[in-house]
Design goal:
Strand order of the largest sheet: 2-1-4-3-5-6-7-8
CATH class: Alpha Beta
Number of strands: 8
Distance between the termini: 34 Å
CATH topology: Rossmann fold
Number of helices: 10
Helix content: 25-40%
Shape: globular
Strand content: 5-15%
Order of helices and strands: EEHEHEHEHEHHEHEHHH
Structural class: alpha/beta
C-alpha cells in the first residue's frame, strides 16, 4: 500500500514531499472498489515537531515506536504490499489546547479540499476517515464544506469535541450523508470532562452518545460494554479488555481493535453499521446521554 503524507497549512493542504508520488496517478492505478482511508492524529502531534511528528510516529509505517505508541497504518493492514492507498493527514495539533482547537477548525477546511480533489480525480471513490481526539474536530469542521457522498464513513476515537459541535456538523448536507462510528469507553471519562471545561468552561457537554436519535448514520461503539464486545467476538473481532482505568489512547491501543477498524473503513466491502452493535441495544435505544450497557459501565463520552 502506498501511504501518501499530506499536511494542512491553514485551510490549504500540501503534499509533505512535493517530489513524492503523484496523487492523480495513484488514484488512477487504484482498483475501483478500494476505499481511500484518511488517518488524522489528535492533540500534541504536529508536522516537523521533533519526536511528535505524526508522519514519523503514529501515521508512519514503523512497526513499533520507541515510546510504546502504536503506528496506525501497518495495523490497519496498510503495509505497502497490497493494492491499497491511504493518506496520513498531518496538522499542527502541538501547543496549547486552545490553539490546537483553533487550528483543527482550519485543518478541517484543508481536509474538505483534499477530499474534494480525490473525488474529482476519482469520481465515485469511497473516502473514509479515522480520527482520534482533536482530530475529530478536524473531521467535524470539514463536514459543512463537503457534499453528500464525499465522506462515506468516519470513525471517531474518543473525540475531543463538544456536543453542540457534533450536532452542528450533523445538521449539514455533508454531515447527514456521512456514517459515523463514535468509539467510547470509561477510560476516557476524565478527558471528556477536561474538554468540556477547557473548551466551554463547562457550559457545554462533551460529545457523548445518543446522536443516533437524530442521525440515522450514527453508531456508538462502547469498548467498555461487555455485551458489545461479546457481539463483536461473534463477528470475528476479538477485542481485549480494559488495561487502565484512565487512558486517552486505548481506542487504538487495545488488542484487536484495528481489525474492526479495518473492516469498517479500509476493506472493499465495509462492515455495515447494522451489524456492528448487538440488538436491540442500539445508540437510539440508549437515550440522549448514552446510558451504558451496565450501571457500573457509565462513560461520559
Amino acid at each position: 500500500m502506498t501511504l501518501v503524507h499530506v499536511n494542512a497549512e491553514g485551510c490549504l493542504w500540501r503534499m509533505r514531499d512535493p517530489g513524492g508520488p503523484d496523487l492523480a496517478g495513484l488514484l488512477a492505478a487504484l482498483p475501483p472498489d478500494r476505499p481511500v482511508p484518511i488517518l488524522i492524529h489528535g492533540f500534541r502531534y504536529g508536522p516537523g515537531i521533533a519526536g511528535r511528528d505524526p508522519h514519523e510516529t503514529i501515521l508512519s509505517h514503523h512497526p513499533r515506536l520507541p515510546d510504546g505508541d502504536l503506528p496506525w497504518p501497518p495495523h490497519l493492514g496498510l503495509t505497502g504490499d497490497g493494492p491499497d492507498l491511504g493518506i496520513a493527514f498531518g496538522w499542527m495539533g502541538y501547543g496549547s489546547f486552545w490553539s490546537a482547537r483553533a487550528r483543527a477548525a482550519e485543518a478541517g477546511l484543508a481536509l474538505a479540499a483534499l477530499i474534494g480533489r480525490i473525488r474529482t480525480l476519482s469520481p465515485g471513490r469511497r473516502v473514509t476517515v479515522l480520527a482520534h481526539s482533536l482530530g475529530a474536530r478536524v473531521l467535524l469542521s470539514a463536514l459543512p464544506a463537503t457534499t453528500p457522498g464525499d465522506i462515506a464513513r468516519a470513525i471517531l476515537l474518543f473525540p475531543a469535541v463538544l456536543r453542540t459541535e457534533v450536532d452542528a456538523a450533523l445538521a449539514t448536507r455533508g454531515g447527514r450523508a456521512t456514517e459515523i462510528v463514535n468509539v467510547t469507553s470509561r477510560e476516557n471519562r476524565i478527558f471528556d470532562l477536561f474538554v468540556s471545561f477547557l473548551a466551554s468552561g463547562g457550559l457545554d457537554r462533551p460529545a457523548g452518545g445518543g446522536h443516533a436519535a437524530r442521525h440515522a448514520g450514527w453508531a456508538d461503539l462502547g469498548l467498555d460494554c461487555a455485551e458489545t464486545l461479546a457481539h463483536l467476538n461473534l463477528l470475528g473481532f476479538a477485542i481485549g479488555g480494559r488495561e487502565r482505568r484512565i487512558c486517552h489512547w486505548s481506542s487504538y491501543m487495545r488488542p484487536g481493535v484495528f481489525a474492526l477498524y479495518r473492516a469498517l473503513i479500509a476493506e472493499p466491502e465495509a462492515l455495515s453499521l447494522h451489524r456492528l452493535l448487538p440488538l436491540p441495544r442500539t445508540s437510539e435505544a440508549l437515550g440522549d446521554w448514552g446510558e451504558a450497557c451496565e450501571p457500573e459501565a457509565f462513560a461520559v463520552n
